[in-house]
Design goal:
336 residues; alpha/beta; 8 strands
């Protein structure tokens, strides 16, 4: 049995907390939003996971020190825009032998850091020097299905193989198969950028386009992600794995995906702000666009789908006209 502190009471944090508790671990959930904790604690259900009862063994706290102190593993399950602030909160209570597992997916706009890089940077600023036990956990894993004990597979990514395998052992059970990967940057780049492609997929569906368009979009979207990732020094095989094409497929095809749903509403005529409000949760793909464009420019990588999503979401471009412009781009070889 491991002691695990879960930071964040959103659907993904709660789904993983539930799974870890059912595997026999000692789990504590913390949230900065008191109402979230109060609701879940009193009902044993998350409002967005109404069919998945939360085990009574899970503890809840408003005190971040209580969620971190003496824990073997700390699960960072807040939205990407809150990762830095949460890392700053927990820094005073961390010990060097603890492990932080990040499940947030994003790239910080002003630094172009992945989420584990954000955590390391913030810990260093707050006196926790050379903290090495950082793991990215990523793959085709919608919270709605994990919370129902439906089978899936995921990647435990860490430069330290021993740490990656330690997390593999904790999270692996009869409904979640865990693989290890040393390419943590590649895994995180996939996790952040696939959300932008999911927005594009939803927009196409909202416009009435069919399966052919969706398949083409997924394939060319992964071409953009892998071109950028390889230019950044990532391992090519990562992009054909669970955190790459696996996560991209599920995010672009499932209505569980907030990004896919937001894109659908935009394609149907809602503004991006209206779409976000209708989804009712954080749409990470929209947050990731500025950093994706900066990275594309930094590494001189052409990313026409990402640029098209930016035009629609941030520049008011008409979705249908934007698709037509993509279709009429200059001809090229598929491998170039």
């Amino acid at each position: 049995m491991k002691k695990i502190g879960v930071l964040g009471a959103g659907t993904w944090g709660v789904a993983l907390a539930r799974m870890l508790a059912k595997s026999g671990n000692d789990v504590t959930i913390w949230s900065a939003v008191k109402d979230e904790i109060d609701y879940i604690k009193s009902t044993h259900f998350h409002p967005n996971l109404p069919s998945s009862e939360i085990p009574e063994s899970i503890k809840f706290t408003y005190d971040v020190e209580n969620a971190v102190k003496d824990k073997d593993v700390i699960l960072m399950a807040v939205a990407s825009i809150y990762v830095r602030g949460t890392a700053q909160r927990i820094a005073p209570y961390l010990k060097s032998d603890q492990i932080i597992v990040d499940v947030a997916k994003g790239i910080e706009a002003n630094t172009l850091f992945t989420m584990t890089e954000v955590i390391r940077d913030e810990l260093n600023k707050n006196g926790v020097k050379d903290f090495k036990n950082l793991v990215a956990l990523s793959g085709p894993t919608h919270a709605e299905e994990v919370a129902r004990d439906l089978p899936t597979a995921i990647v435990s990514a860490c430069e330290n193989q021993v740490t990656a395998e330690y997390i593999q052992d904790i999270f692996m059970n009869t409904c979640m198969r865990v693989y290890t990967n040393h390419d943590i940057k590649g895994v995180e780049i996939c996790g952040a950028l696939k959300n932008i492609i999911a927005l594009a997929s939803g927009i196409c569906y909202g416009l009435g386009y069919g399966d052919n368009a969706k398949a083409a979009l997924i394939t060319r979207g992964m071409a953009e992600i892998s071109r950028l990732g390889i230019a950044m020094g990532c391992t090519p095989a990562t992009f054909s794995g669970l955190a790459g094409i696996g996560d991209l497929i599920v995010t672009t095809t499932s209505m569980h995906s907030r990004n896919n749903r937001a894109g659908l509403y935009i394609g149907q005529g809602l503004s991006p702000q209206q779409a976000i409000k209708k989804v009712g949760m954080v749409v990470e793909g929209i947050n990731a666009i500025p950093a994706a464009l900066e990275l594309a420019e930094k590494y001189s990588i052409e990313m026409p789908i990402v640029s098209a999503v930016n035009a629609v979401v941030n520049q008011g471009a008409d979705p249908m006209e934007t698709v037509l412009e993509l279709m009429q781009r200059k001809k090229r070889n598929e491998q170039s």
